[in-house]
Design a protein that fits this description.
This protein has about 250 residues and is α+β, with helices and mostly antiparallel strands. The protein is built from ten helices and eleven strands. It is globular.
Length: about 250
């Protein structure tokens, strides 16, 4: 695990690649950056177990993180997803010990973690940071509620297109690794359902799917194939970040 703390303080924020962190006031980012511990996280890495206290919060750079709930019988469903626009570990900000969700890496990549005590110290010392985190929490809850609506109201291929768009937004390449098994796990459906949905998108020339690697070929077409949930959630986070940047410039 590498740390930005080894760099001179004035350069500590140079490598930060998380939009939530980069939207912070300069003094807040300067305080946090030396304590960020960066590393590469493989797919499937469990960050926070259900009902267990976490000692860290996580800021994805190029990886994608999922919050997963498990029901009786072992079935799973993704209730929320986090990329470079946000953070995982909101329970710490909300002064909660734990949540019933499992937090894991769905797409491998780079990420920074921050000790919970440093995060709490930041929240105590900066009213601006608390206000921004309150608004981020609201945006994330909007995503969770829209995901619940999406899982109930839309077809598997629409949901698959939405999930691929959200992932494409967060990774640094048009191609990313994702098996049928893991995509089925994320969508809460059988593997056969994912095969059909991915086949529809591939036949339409929107993606290719070979040996666990997905390549987005037609971004605009994928947006058209998705349900409206993608746009609704995306606008919430863009509005949050835009408002924060405007506050900084005011």
């Amino acid at each position: 695990m590498s740390s930005l703390a080894t760099q001179p303080k004035r350069d500590a924020a140079r490598n930060v690649a998380n939009r939530l962190l980069l939207a912070l006031d300069g003094s807040d980012l300067e305080f946090l950056a030396p304590h960020l511990e960066e590393d590469h996280y493989p797919s499937g890495s469990v960050l926070i177990e259900p009902n267990q206290r976490s000692e860290y919060v996580y800021f994805p750079y190029s990886c994608v993180v999922s919050l997963i709930n498990t029901v009786a019988g072992g079935s799973t469903v993704e209730v929320g997803t986090v990329g470079n626009e946000g953070m995982a570990g909101l329970a710490i900000f909300l002064d909660a010990d734990a949540t019933p969700s499992r937090t894991l890496v769905q797409v491998a990549g780079e990420m920074a973690r921050l000790r919970a005590d440093k995060f709490r110290e930041m929240a105590e010392r900066s009213a601006g940071f608390r206000k921004f985190m309150n608004r981020y929490t609201l945006a994330f809850l909007a995503q969770v509620s829209q995901t619940a609506t999406c899982n109930r109201a839309h077809t598997i291929d629409e949901r698959c297109a939405r999930w691929l768009l959200m992932t494409h937004d967060r990774v640094t390449s048009d191609t990313f690794n994702l098996t049928h098994e893991f995509l089925a796990f994320m969508l809460g459906v059988r593997r056969a359902g994912v095969t059909v949905a991915a086949g529809i998108l591939q036949k339409a020339g929107l993606i290719t799917y070979k040996r666990g690697n997905i390549t987005v070929l037609n971004r605009r077409g994928l947006e058209e194939a998705s349900c409206e949930c993608y746009g609704i959630v995306n606008k919430e986070f863009e509005r949050l970040l835009e408002a924060q940047m405007n506050n900084r410039l005011a």
